[in-house]
Write a structure and sequence with these properties.
The protein is globular. It has five helices and six strands; from the N terminus they run H-E-E-H-E-E-H-E-E-H-H. It has 178 residues and is α+β, with helices and mostly antiparallel strands. The longest helix has 18 residues, at 157-174. The protein binds adenosine-5'-triphosphate and magnesium ion. Residues 10, 14-15, 18, 40, 42-45, 50, 55-58, 64-68, 92 line the site of adenosine-5'-triphosphate.
Length: 178
């Protein structure tokens, strides 16, 4: 996985594989600190052992590398990856932080494209992206709302994917990503 965008896609796939119907992503990027949290309502991660590459629910391969690689990518910059099982309801919260100015930091890659691709691959998913700046949080992408708008205007999936890409790009630029 060459960039953060690849990692985000992998985390999202994990949520889908865990039966999640809802994924909430929160990101912040200030003074070279990239923060990201992903919450889903899937089956829940059992515990920290998922950070071991030999723990996987994959059927095709005996090792799962997504999370161990993300952990390493974060820690290489002095950051961290934390996994929490949600107590109050079903699901998982994953949080990571990276120092993007660190010499070993992976590039962001095209995050906007990743969000657009996620929509295209799983259009029925309840997905929300929040961006926080200076303590306040703004909802910048909401697939459900976009779908509703589309149903009224009969916009097709390809057009929506492009729209999501453009909205995400604009919003990410405001926090110096992309
Ligand atoms: N959001 C999640 N909810 C429930 N279980 C999860 C979640 N994310 C990961 N897991 C569990 O942790 C294991 C390891 O995940 P990881 O992404 O490291 O590897 P993988 O998805 O199995 O394989 P790869 O990412 O290499 O394709 C998964 O197989 C799954 O059992
Ligand atoms: Mg994975």
């Amino acid at each position: 996985m060459k960039d953060i965008a690849d990692h985000l896609f992998d985390i999202f796939e994990n949520s889908v594989n865990a039966g999640a119907s809802e994924v909430i992503v929160r990101i912040a990027n200030t003074e070279n600190h990239f923060f990201c949290s992903i919450t889903d309502n899937g089956t829940g991660i059992s515990g920290p052992e998922v950070l071991d590459p030999f723990v996987t629910s994959r059927k095709t391969r005996r090792v799962g590398l997504g999370l161990p690689l993300l952990k390493k990518a974060a820690e290489d910059t002095g950051g961290y990856l934390k996994i929490k099982k949600r107590e109050e309801m079903r699901g998982t919260t994953l949080q990571f932080e990276m120092d993007t100015s660190h010499i070993d930091a992976k590039p962001f890659g095209d995050l906007a494209q990743t969000f657009a691709d996620i929509f295209f691959a799983w259009p029925e998913m309840v997905f929300k992206l929040y961006i926080s700046t200076r303590g306040s949080e703004e909802l910048v992408l909401d697939f459900q709302r976009l779908r509703q708008e589309a149903e009224e205007g009969l916009v097709d999936l390809l057009k929506l994917r492009k729209h999501i890409y453009e909205v995400a790009r604009e919003e990410l630029k405001k926090i110096d990503i992309g």
